[in-house]
Amino acid sequence: MSIAIARANEIQYRVENGYGETEVLPGVYPLVRGFKCVLKAGHDVKPEVYADKTAIYCFTRGTGYITDGLKAYNIDELSFYIPDFSREFCIHAVSDMEIMKIVVDLLESDKAAYEDTHMVLPAFKRFSETEPYDQSCKGPN
């Protein structure tokens, strides 16, 4: 078993209209694609909407907000956003932002399970609003 590592200083972006993204660790897991993205202050991006995939956005640096036509979400700390499959949304950067985009292919079993039960989308949560999680195997550090 091997471990794949992507170093931040080795990631290169081609930035157009204030936005750039590059795939990191391509092919490491066939159903999951990860992208490191940058959005420059004062710019907007309307990411691709996926009807048959789950997308997760982790806002790791900078400030801004997301709008989806119904609601706005302020990004002022580490935050997470899972868009609705069919609703377009826009990300606006107030300061330079770094974003990790994770796109997951849904298996037929995932799609069937989704019909029975699923979280309400879109979903947005700041890190400070997340539930604490602990395990007995974790040490003091």
Automatic annotation (TrEMBL):
Lineage: superkingdom: Bacteria
Protein name listed in UniProt: AraC-type arabinose-binding/dimerisation domain-containing protein
Organism: Hungatella hathewayi DSM 13479
